[in-house]
Design goal:
two-stranded antiparallel ribbon, 13 helices, about 45% helix, globular
Length: about 260
Amino acid sequence: RKGYAFAENAAELAQTVNDKQILGLFTRGHLPYAIDRKYDARFAAIPSLATMFKAALQSLGQHENGFVLQVEAGRIDHAGHANDPASILHETLEFDRCIPIALDYYKAHPDTLIIVTTDHGTGGCQLNGTGKGYQESGPALDRINRFKGSFQSVARIYEQTGAFDARHFEAISGLAVNEAQIEQILHEVQQNKRYMTSVIADVLNDKLMERTAIGWTSNNHTAEHVELAALGPGSAEIPMFLKNYELHGMLRQALNL
């Protein structure tokens, strides 16, 4: 009634190419992780972040007075909280695929300001040198890339069955889990009421570190410097270093708001 085109999957989103107002609701909760969308056929109809970005640009670009668009790969944060190395890698790549789309739009519309940043780190994710002469550091990245599911995919099975599916975990990660570790995971989830996605990394920390060379400091937000890049009108006024809350005022100034 408000004039919005409505989409619940990628095919419906593709039909909104001429609509100025679009509402896309693709799941009842968080979007699935990119790694699960890649390997789990149940999520094949959910559009990628890049696909949603293109649809949003097509829609908003029809407005004569311009627009403000925020493109957020929000599940990077969730993967950091879970200390899930494969999910955080795939979510970062999911966002990275949006940057060329933004740059192409800028080339055609040079009055566009692009800002790439984040509000904070999560988990203290770091790739560690490993092996003699650090020669295993690259292969560790290759092993992460061979993961075929998120920790959330394991939690999803638990929510349905009440069990930790060790065979599924080994299939997606290449890591075997013994009975004692399964009992510890279930105890933390059932008795201490913790999220399984975080418990997996805690209980299997040594195995995950050996396989991925990824180290973590916590399951919490962290205070390291984060990426800040800007291009276009107003970008010259953005300093190389700033406190994250200061960016809001600079955006308003660039937009004359």
